[in-house]
Amino acid sequence: MQTKAYAKLTLCLHVKDRVNGSLHFRNVTVPIDLFDMVYLEKSETMHIETDKKYLPNDKRNTVYKALILLKETYAIKDNFKVRIVKNIPTQSGLGGGSADAAAVIRMINEMYALDLSREELINIARKIDEDTPFCLFNEASIVEGIGDILTPIDIIEPLYYICVKPSFGVSTKGFMKKFDHFQTEDKVVACIEALEEKNYKKLSDNMHNDFQKSVVRHNSRMRKIMRTLREQGMDGVSMSGTGTSVFGLSQDIDEVREAYKRIATKFSFVKYGEIKPKL
Questions:
Q1: DSSP codes joined into one string, 144-155
Q2: Which domains does the chain have, with CATH numbers?
Q3: Which residues of 10-35 are buried (b: 16+ CB within 10 A; e: fewer)?
Q4: What is the pLDDT of residues 41-88, one digit of tens each?
Q5: Mind listing the pLDDT tens digit for each residue in 217-244?
Q6: Strand 235-239's sheet: what is its strand order?
Q7: Angle, CA of 244, 124 and 13, to the nearest 5°
Q8: Quick one: angle between helices 96-111 and 118-125, nearest 10?
């Protein structure tokens, strides 16, 4: 079997509080047309391989975690070989590892005719990480709790993005463990209202990431990327998730394409596309 594992952008990231050591969120997240390819087949032994040598292929890999969890939960005796062709950059805040794990959960569900409900799928995914539940469904959503409460939401159309990932990343686990700068939820409430009202300016004016200030403060290269996107006419320039990807929005595809042409060779990863409500 094979499937696409789609990346995501977090239009607004709000950290509500910390409960029993875990951060709880209220985010607005959308899927984008950037994807890894994940191939799954039965095998005599468990084996994971990727086209990137620096990625772990053992129990540290989210796909491995998902497979072991599924095997234990549903008494699956088979082992599997998984091959992942990576297009989503690592430590980018675009949900690459989560998307790959979600892809495997969907394929196992289909392969063994488990017919898992939405709640059962989420219950498995939430044990991987906070982005895997969203990546199961690839649908624009308000994402709450530890990523396991998903409320689909419509988006403004047309809506285009350009995303830049520098050559370095950040440690998600280490960063989230230290976070303590809790703020009011005014920005995320405004973003949700903007989508409901189809108000593009209100959306772009209120896009926000609670992690951004801490990350960007000590990183001149991140500030440069954000400045570059603003100079290219992009709106709502922001970090995505807890990674180092920076993106901006536009409703003008020609403007986005021209911006891409001007900056594509300046950074290690640049991608543009159209945001759809569901992929």
A1: EETTTEEEE---
A2: 2-152 (3.30.230.10), 160-274 (3.30.70.890)
A3: bbbbbbbeeeeeebbbbbbbbbbebb
A4: 999 999 999 998 888 888 889 999 999 999 999 999 999 999 999 999
A5: 878 899 999 999 999 999 999 999 888 9
A6: 235-239, 246-250, 160-165, 269-274
A7: 30
A8: 130
CA 227, 203, 33, 14 torsion: positive or negative? positive
- List the structure tokens of 256: 């986005």
The rounded distance, in Å, linking the Cα atoms of 241 and 67 is 25
The catalytic residues are 8, 131
Rounded distance, CA 230 to CA 260, Å?
13
List CB contacts of 220: < 8 A, sequence separation 6 or more.
Answer: none
